[in-house]
Automatic annotation (TrEMBL):
<keyword id="KW-0822">Tryptophan biosynthesis</keyword>
<keyword id="KW-0456">Lyase</keyword>
<dbReference type="InterPro" id="IPR001926">
    <property type="entry name" value="TrpB-like_PALP"/>
</dbReference>
<dbReference type="InterPro" id="IPR006653">
    <property type="entry name" value="Trp_synth_b_CS"/>
</dbReference>
<feature type="domain" description="Tryptophan synthase beta chain-like PALP">
    <location>
        <begin position="52"/>
        <end position="378"/>
    </location>
</feature>
<comment type="function">
    <text>The beta subunit is responsible for the synthesis of L-tryptophan from indole and L-serine.</text>
</comment>
<comment type="similarity">
    <text>Belongs to the TrpB family.</text>
</comment>
<keyword id="KW-0057">Aromatic amino acid biosynthesis</keyword>
<feature type="modified residue" description="N6-(pyridoxal phosphate)lysine">
    <location>
        <position position="87"/>
    </location>
</feature>
<comment type="pathway">
    <text>Amino-acid biosynthesis; L-tryptophan biosynthesis; L-tryptophan from chorismate: step 5/5.</text>
</comment>
<keyword id="KW-0028">Amino-acid biosynthesis</keyword>
<dbReference type="GO" id="GO:0004834">
    <property type="term" value="F:tryptophan synthase activity"/>
</dbReference>
<dbReference type="Pfam" id="PF00291">
    <property type="entry name" value="PALP"/>
</dbReference>
<keyword id="KW-0663">Pyridoxal phosphate</keyword>
<dbReference type="InterPro" id="IPR023026">
    <property type="entry name" value="Trp_synth_beta/beta-like"/>
</dbReference>
<comment type="subunit">
    <text>Tetramer of two alpha and two beta chains.</text>
</comment>
<dbReference type="InterPro" id="IPR006654">
    <property type="entry name" value="Trp_synth_beta"/>
</dbReference>
Length: 407
């Protein structure tokens, strides 16, 4: 197995300041050694089972499939993992690796907060110090996750530079790492950044796809025509797709945030029309940039999909046609969330609901002897402060006001 790539086609690389070369070299060597070390792999597997709760189930969405009348829909229930999303797979793998490397402190960046919560929780479990950088805007809109991170003992550092969102938090984390790497590991939250991060994150997330291979053999009678996953930076999708990339089928479908439309600042559609090649935060990929090469603002109803770049392997797979990219709007994601909640009793995270929306469209075009498998990368508990306002309107507002009044 090829574990280490500098480049995926023309994307990837390690475009960093000289000061970060040594920690990246050290990380690459430790990672390659760990992936063939029986002790490391069995400890990881033990924690995946007993702490994350793996394997996550593959559920046949029977009611949804009957209503849609086309291809059968199956849902990989990644949201049932501890802390509520796939982010924990990568956080656990990297934190365990850092501990083996003798590091005592972890730093991370977070946008939606889900990666920060996953990182803070594994640090508590493994006894590591944890600092999470988070843009002030994201802290305000994801306050419940800030509360959880602090409950796990992490220090959440507000970032007030730039647009005060994820990309600014990444800059702060990189700055910290440049002066602290002898004791500290920078735990990147998606399949991006300078190498070896894209390979490492894919490998730790590929547990999702490896389970799926077995579950298809055991439980899926139909011919699997497509795997569908949402794409922010790309960690849940690349992990879900990983064992299938070298095959010709099934189709691999990545779903981006179509937001409110394709105007500047209204979406995060990097692979479906608006991205350009660039080098940002240590790697070459497709980004949303203005004509001066500056990163453009983004929007999505889901805080986890509004990143202006995409992991380099996915950019390459998009360019070669192995991954087909599409997008879902805020409105379509909300409709999918309601559809699966109403008919299957599961609440998709807003990010994953984008994949749900694309799966609904694909299923309608297919036939009942085919199957579409959608990755529910997370569950929607974290989003209730956004969704309830839209779905439940004033009653929710009144509830929040009365709770605040009691405090
Ligand atoms: C539930 C969920 N799904 C998807 C994503 C998007 O990230 P990625 O593309 O790395 O899977 C996030 C990011 O926060 C998330 O919380």
């Amino acid at each position: 197995m090829q574990l280490y790539n500098d480049f995926f086609g023309r994307f990837g690389g390690r475009y960093v300041a000289e000061v970060l070369r040594k920690p990246l070299d050290e990380l690459e060597q430790s990672f390659i050694a760990a992936m063939s070390n029986e002790g490391f792999l069995s400890e990881l597997e033990y924690l995946q089972k007993t702490y994350i709760g793996r394997p996550t189930p593959l559920m046949f969405a029977e009611n949804a499939s009957n209503i849609l009348g086309g291809s059968k829909i199956y849902i990989k229930m990644e949201g049932l993992a501890n802390t509520g999303a796939h982010k924990i797979n990568n956080a656990l793998g990297q934190a365990l690796l850092a501990k083996k490397m003798g590091k005592s402190r972890i730093i991370a960046e977070t946008g939606a907060g889900q990666h920060g919560v996953a990182t803070a929780s594994v640090c508590a479990r493994l006894g590591l110090d944890c600092t999470v950088y988070m843009g002030e805007v994201d802290m305000a809109r994801q306050r419940p996750n800030v509360y959880l991170m602090e409950m796990f003992g992490a220090q959440v550092v507000p970032v007030s530079s730039g647009s005060r969102t994820l990309k600014d938090a990444v800059n702060e984390a990189l700055r910290d790492w440049a002066s602290s790497w002898d004791t500290t590991h920078y735990l990147i939250g998606s399949a991006l950044g300078p190498s070896p991060f894209p390979d490492m994150v894919r490998e730790f997330q590929s547990v999702i796809g490896k389970e799926l291979v077995k579950q298809i053999e055991e439980n899926v009678k139909e011919d699997v025509e497509a795997l569908v996953a949402c794409v922010g930076g790309g960690s849940n999708s690349i992990g879900f797709f990983a064992p299938f990339i070298e095959q010709e089928r099934p189709a691999l479908v990545g779903v981006e945030a179509g937001g409110r439309g394709l105007g500047n600042g209204e979406h995060a559609a990097r692979m479906t029309g608006c991205g350009v090649e660039g080098i940002v935060q240590g790697y070459k990929s497709m980004f949303l940039l203005d004509s001066d090469g500056q990163v453009l603002p983004t929007h999505s109803i889901s805080a986890g999909l509004d990143y202006p770049g995409i992991g380099p392997q996915l950019a390459h797979l998009g360019e070669t046609g192995r991954v087909i990219f599409t997008r879902a709007t805020d409105k379509e994601a909300l409709e999918a969330l309601r559809f699966f909640a109403r008919h299957e009793g599961v609440i998709f995270a807003l990010e994953s609901a984008h994949a749900g929306a694309a799966a609904i469209k694909l299923a309608k075009e297919g036939s009942p002897d085919k199957a579409i498998i959608v990755n529910m990368s997370g569950r929607g508990d974290k989003d209730i402060f956004i969704t309830a306002k839209i779905i439940d309107g004033n009653r929710w507002r009144d509830f929040l006001l009365s709770e605040a009044g009691d405090a």
